[in-house]
Amino acid sequence: MAVYKIFPEKSATLFSFNPITNTGLDEIIEISTFYSIDQSNEVSRGIIKFPTSEITDIITNKVSGSVFSSSLKLYLANASELPLEYSLYAYPISGSWDKGTGRLGNVPITSNGASWKYRNQNSGSQWFSGSLALGPTFPSGTTGSYSSSFGGGLWHTASIYESTQSFSSATEKDIDINVSNIVRDWYSGSINNQGFIIKHDNSLEFTTASKFELKYFSDTTHTIYPPCLEIKWNDSSFSTGSLKVVTSSYCVAVINNNKGEYQQDSIQQFRVVVRDLYPSVAFRTSLSFANAKCLPSSSYWSIKDLDTEETVIDYDTQFTKISCDSSSNFFTVYMNGLEPERYYKILVKSILSNGEVVILDRDYIFKVIR
């Protein structure tokens, strides 16, 4: 029942039409296929890296042996000329690269850090070597996809590292790619964490088949939509003790330890106390909440941004499962994954024994502060 978000340490876009342009400070990552001003077929690819120390700390000290899932998430800023269906691919980058200090609109262009041709222009280090006559030279276990100007990144080729997401006209266009295999091998040391490269299918790049633009918010965005690496695991437990499970939608659930404000690096275990909405008539010497019940084991939590009504953490039958002990139901929220100085609302969903689905929305609101 745990969700932890890690934010990137660097990102950039690689543009084939200008192989030495650096965009390390741009607020946008672009993954597009397009015509240049001279009508040549060109592409752009995104590269992004998350801190190794944070990944190691979360898996070692919080996941702690549990089965976990990892997702690469980027949020769409703008798109144009989209086809009805397309796919994006993410691969683990081979070899280090430098962020740089450039922007796409800089005149003259900034030619330091990573670009289409170079992984680090300051040192003159290219993504891979080769010649137009003989072709490129890739280190063992890696590959690249290139134009006449060699470059565009270098990534590992093992089939378990190919992560993909398909889109249709009916789906959201935010990126949410399962990259669990990659993160597990970063953690084990099988490959080094140098980040991800995100690109279109090879069949669309450098062809006239389709030309469309996708722009996502980068690590330097000033919005509430920075990219993240989301790590989720199931640490839920369910032992009701003497508590009885509610069997009717006529129930009341109260988060009785919501302090209202939380520091952005804090961890809060919310307690959910439940009782029947219409308790049976009986003589009592204590308040009815002293005879509290609990939600069924098929109960889950979700968090929405209060202003935008966007779901920040969605219900997940494995990873946002609500726990129970002899006192009450409970779940844990890591506040680091929420933007500071914003209000959020908790929602609870329960599936009762009769199959009825109950959404509990009683304005469980809190704010994350710096």
Folded structure, characterized:
This protein has helices at residues 52-63, 180-188; strands spanning 2-6, 10-15, 28-30, 33-35, 41-49, 68-74, 76-80, 86-92, 118-120, 125-126, 129-131, 135-137, 142-143, 155-156, 163-167, 175-178, 196-200, 213-217, 228-233, 251-255, 261-263, 267-276, 299-305, 311-313, 323-324, 329-334, 342-351, 357-369. It is elongated. With 370 residues, the protein is mainly β. The longest helix is centred in the first third of the chain and has 12 residues, at 52-63. The strands form 8 sheets. Strands 2, 4, 5, 8, 15 and 17 form a 6-stranded antiparallel beta sheet that branches. It has 2 domains: 2-233; 251-369, Immunoglobulin-like, CATH 2.60.40.10.
What's the helix and strand layout?
Layout: E1 2-6, E2 10-15, E3 28-30, E4 33-35, E5 41-49, H1 52-63, E6 68-74, E7 76-80, E8 86-92, E9 118-120, E10 125-126, E11 129-131, E12 135-137, E13 142-143, E14 155-156, E15 163-167, E16 175-178, H2 180-188, E17 196-200, E18 213-217, E19 228-233, E20 251-255, E21 261-263, E22 267-276, E23 299-305, E24 311-313, E25 323-324, E26 329-334, E27 342-351, E28 357-369
Parallel strand pairs: 21-28
Antiparallel strand pairs: 1-19, 2-5, 3-18, 4-5, 5-17, 6-16, 6-19, 7-18, 8-15, 8-17, 9-10, 11-12, 13-14, 20-22, 22-26, 23-24, 23-27, 25-26, 27-28
